[in-house]
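Thread: "does anyone have the structure for this chain?"

Original post by V.I.:
We have the sequence but no experimental structure in hand. Need at least a predicted one for the grant figures.
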Amino acid sequence: MNYNKKTVEDIEVAGKKVLVRCDFNVPLKDGVITDDKRIVGALPTIKYLMEKGAKIILCSHLGRPKGEFNPAFSLAPVAVRLSELLGKEVVLAKDVIGEDAKAKAATLCDGDIMLIENVRFHKEETSKDKEELRSFAKELASMAEVFVNDAFGTAHRAQASTAVVAEFLPAVCGYLIQKEVKIMGDALNAPAKPFVAILGGAKVSDKIGVINNLIEKVDTLVIGGGMAYTFLRALGNPIGTSICEEDKLDLANELMAKAKEKGVNFLLPVDNTIGREYKEDTVFMSIYSDAIPDGWMGLDIGPKTQEMFAKSLIGAGTIVWNGPMGVSEWENFASGTETVAKAVAESGAITIIGGGDSAAAVEKLGYADKMTHVSTGGGASLEFLEGLELPGIACLMDKE
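Reply from O.Q.:
Generated one for you, C-alpha cells below.
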C-alpha cells in the first residue's frame, strides 16, 4: 500500500473551511477528562491550520453512543479542554450535521475553531449500508472545502468521517498520521538491525497476520501473554487451564516452522507465573513451561523468561512491542510486562510501542518519554504491522 500521502502542508488552506477528523475518544469520569493525551496529540495540526488562517471544523467520536444523542458521550468537555490548551475559544455545535453545526460553520472567520458533536450520535457514521455512509459523509463534507484526517486511532475503520468523506473533498493527512506512518513504515521497510518484535495479549487469532508479516522482517520474535500458551500447547506442553485456542494449534506449529525456515529467533516463555484462578488475589507460583499442573493457569511470564526476554533486546536496532506479557493490571502478574517495558526503554534501540495495553503500561510505568514512538492507535497499529491497507489513509491524495 502507498503511504506517501499529501499532508496538510501540501494543500492551500488559507481562508478555507477545513474539516479535521481528530481522535478525541478520551477517558471520562463523572464528565471530567482523566487523560488528555489524544487532545494534545491533535494540537500541532490545529495550530498549523490556525496560523495559516483556515476556518477549522473539528470532528470526532467518543465512546459508543449507539447512533443516538446521549449527553454522557457529548464532546463538551473536549471543547473546554481544547479552549484551555489553545488559549482560544473552541465553539461547540449542538449537533453534527444539523442547523446549529451548519450555521456555526457558515459564520467562521479565518483562524476560528469549532467542534461539532459526536459523529457517532448518527448511526450512519458506522453504517454497513454504503448509501447511508455516503449520504452522511456528503452532509459532513458540505460544511467544508478541505478534509484533513489526523485520527490514526480510527484509520483502520472505513467510516463516514474517517474515510468516506474523502470522496467529496480534497483529502490530506495531519501531522499525527504523518508521524505514525513515517515511524512505523520505516520500522517495517528499512529497520535498523537487529529487528526485534515483542507480541503479547490474549489471542493468537488477533495477531496471526501480524506474526506472519513480521516473520518476513524480524531477526527475533518474542511471544508472551496469553497467546504463548497456544504455542506451548502446540509443542506438546501441559498448560493446565491456561487460555488456549485449540483450533489454532496447527497454525501455531506452521508459524514456528516458518520462523525456523526464515532463520528467525522465535522465543517462547521457559517458565510462567501461574495461578489457581483468574482472580487478582489468587494463590500463585512460578513453574517451568513444560510442567504446568492441571487446575492452574498461566497469568504472567516467569522470572527466567523475563531475564531471557530482556537479554534478547540487548544490542537491538529496532524494537516493536504490542501486547502485555501477562495480566498486567493485577500487581501479582505485572512484573513480566514491567521488566519488558524497562528493557525496551533502556535498550538504546529505535522503540515503537503499538498502542493499546502496551502504550498504557509504558505510560503508567513512566517509560513513555524514553520510547521513540508510542502509537495512538491499538487496532490501527496492529493492522499497519500486519501490512493491511488502512481505509482512513488509503483515501487520502497521493504525493506526486
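V.I.: this helps a lot. The chain has a mean pLDDT of 94.
O.Q.: and The first helix runs from residue 37 to 51.
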